């Protein structure tokens, strides 16, 4: 995501009760931070946060954690969160570290409009590559469930193959999500692509354990 630097980003992050400064200390204990045993859903690469914030508002009995690599992007998301949510936290990590932050406690992963990394030599940087899928194995509680959306057909096809090769069952495949489903909570990128009448590709994949 190309985003101009936010000058007071450190201040925005450190003043927000939703931003967790040292997420590594909560590994295996995220439910204690939420003070309940509700399911935990994470979005990896949340961008400016529209999707995860709207989900947290709509589903108070689900705990949400937004994951993003860049301070400047997080600084755009935090001010949008209403003051009294108790089911949402935001963390800054590279997804490569995800298995150092969570252990057997995640119920669902959202991958929304992940960077496509089109060059073959960069394919292992894709969040649906086998490197990441192997890391996700350590963080799921029971059933492994990933919800993916993208505008990028090549990334979509690559991901369907990668998920299948890793043992995931492809549950709901859509080559035009907004034609197939209504009343969706959307992301910032999604709104941009749908306003241009571009199709959104989506899939839900699962492994029962
Ligand atoms: C194309 S944007 C999509 C943002 C948002 N999900 C949306 O749909 O509007 C991808 C986001 O993923 C973040 N990202 C990419 N690789 C990441 C990684 N390895 N770990 C954490 N965040 C990552 C980027 O910083 C960027 O904000």
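^ Assign residues to that structure.
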């Amino acid at each position: 995501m190309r985003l101009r630097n936010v000058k007071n980003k450190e201040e925005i992050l450190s003043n927000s009760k939703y931003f967790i400064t040292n997420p590594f200390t909560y590994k295996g204990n995220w439910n204690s931070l939420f003070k309940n045993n509700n399911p935990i859903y994470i979005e990896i690469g949340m961008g400016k946060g529209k999707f995860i914030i709207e989900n947290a508002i709509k589903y108070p009995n689900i705990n949400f954690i937004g994951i993003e690599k860049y301070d400047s992007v997080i600084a755009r998301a935090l001010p949008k969160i209403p003051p009294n949510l108790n089911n949402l936290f935001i963390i800054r990590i590279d997804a490569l570290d995800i298995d150092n932050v969570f252990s057997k406690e995640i119920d669902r992963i959202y991958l929304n409009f992940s960077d496509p990394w089109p060059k073959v030599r960069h394919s292992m940087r894709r969040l649906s590559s086998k490197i990441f899928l192997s890391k996700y194995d350590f963080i799921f509680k029971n059933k492994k469930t990933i919800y993916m959306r993208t505008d990028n057909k090549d990334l979509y096809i690559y991901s369907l193959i990668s998920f299948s090769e890793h043992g995931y069952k492809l549950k709901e495949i859509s080559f035009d999500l907004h034609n197939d489903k209504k009343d969706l909570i959307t992301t910032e990128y999604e709104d941009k692509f749908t306003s241009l009448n571009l199709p959104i590709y989506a899939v839900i994949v699962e492994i029962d354990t």
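The longest strand covers residues 144-150.
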